[in-house]
Amino acid sequence: MSDTASARQHMIDSQLRPNEMNDETIIQAITDTRREKFVPKSLGGVAYHDNEIQVSPGRRMMGPMVFARLIGAAEVKKTDLVLDIGCATGYSSAVLGRLAEAVVALEEDEMLAEKATNILAEESCDNVAVVTGSLTEGLAAQGPYDLIFINGMIDHIPQTLLDQIAEGGRMICVIRENGVGRACYVTTENGIVGKRKLFDANIPVFSSFSRKEKFEF
């Protein structure tokens, strides 16, 4: 077993499984995704540590443990069309792509979007399409989506994104409340939006979601 494969397995055994992540389908998707390929080469040696990793100025990839818990909460189905908001270099999209039918990876930073496109192609993630655009606007033209996954902590959910959740679909996000991040499972059914708080989660903040909109929970 290579050093990186050993580090990946250690991450699963020491970080994921002890934190209630025992879904073997998700474990396999994470096992099959080479996280070190999605971080700067100089940080490849710490790719599997339970820490955030800076992938560009002002942008950080969330730690493996909280990421895995959020993926588990998403209840991804093989038939799902997923909108992955703030994909950065594409790691989250690669994992989601192994679980869902198709993933639209949305990134507002053009350089990160280019990196994500190249890495995902190298890793044969053929069911993931990277699109550059506003994170708060989403991508209505490709929706609605069975799952919207937001990769950063937000202060509010824009109505534009709620409108892109398919009937009976859901959103997984972390909302900042009084300085604390709360992982939330958001649903929409018959025009009614519901929100269920899941667990505390400290992940990188998306500053583009700091401006308050008319609709808030």
Report what the structure shows.
With 217 residues, the chain is an alpha/beta fold. It has one domain: Rossmann fold (3-Layer(aba) Sandwich). It is 27% helix and 30% strand. It has helices spanning 3-16, 24-31, 64-74, 91-99, 110-122, 159-162; strands spanning 53-56, 59-61, 81-85, 102-107, 128-132, 145-154, 165-177, 180-189, 192-200. A hairpin with a 2-residue loop joins strand 7 (165-177) and strand 8 (180-189).
Layout of helices and strands:
Elements: H1 3-16, H2 24-31, E1 53-56, E2 59-61, H3 64-74, E3 81-85, H4 91-99, E4 102-107, H5 110-122, E5 128-132, E6 145-154, H6 159-162, E7 165-177, E8 180-189, E9 192-200
Helix pairs in contact: 2-4
Q: What are the secondary-structure elements, in order, as H or E?
A: HHEEHEHEHEEHEEE
How many domains would you count in the coordinates? Answer: 1
Largest sheet: 7 strands, mixed
The dominant shape is globular
Name of the CATH architecture: 3-Layer(aba) Sandwich
Which CATH first-tier class would you pick?
Answer: Alpha Beta
Radius of gyration: 16 Å
% residues in beta strands: 25-35%
Helix fraction? Answer: 25-40%
CATH topology label: Rossmann fold
Please, how many helices?
6
Strands of the biggest beta sheet: in what spatial order?
A: 5-4-3-6-7-8-9
CATH superfamily: Vaccinia Virus protein VP39
